[in-house]
Amino acid sequence: MEKRSNYLSWDDYFMGLALLSAKRSKDPNTQVGACIVNNKKRIVSVGYNGFPSGCSDDVYPWNREGNELDTKYPYIVHAELNAILNSKADLSNCTIYVTMFPCNECSKAIIQSGINHIIYLTNKYPNSNAVLASVKMLESAGVVVEQYKSSLNEVVLNYKNE
To answer: Which residues contact 17 (CB under 8 A, 6 or more apart)?
Structure first.
């Protein structure tokens, strides 16, 4: 008997975990997930965008527009930062898989944590100041950035295991 041939590649597996983590986000507009992996292909952390622990998502706003304090932006913790903060491991030379290109604030945390490789799924705001600043810092710091490419369109999870 030969081994199965339709198994997930490492990149598909780790990006799949980032996508699955994004499903935990309660943000009605944007769900982002991240998965940090060390150089031995071991998962050291995951994260998704949401409010800080102890800040109720029933109390804080999910709005995208209006007075800044009435929007989600001053309160939300991005997936990358959550994954970094959730980790107890040394993140030096790790790779972060993230479903959206990191903003400048997340890139600062990525650089400072020692993560040296980013694999992202999509860049929703390529011409925004946050992404332009992010690209500049990541290049200066020598962080390798690449867009995820896969031949897969989907991975189906079957909880009935049939």
So the answer is: 33, 35, 43, 46, 97
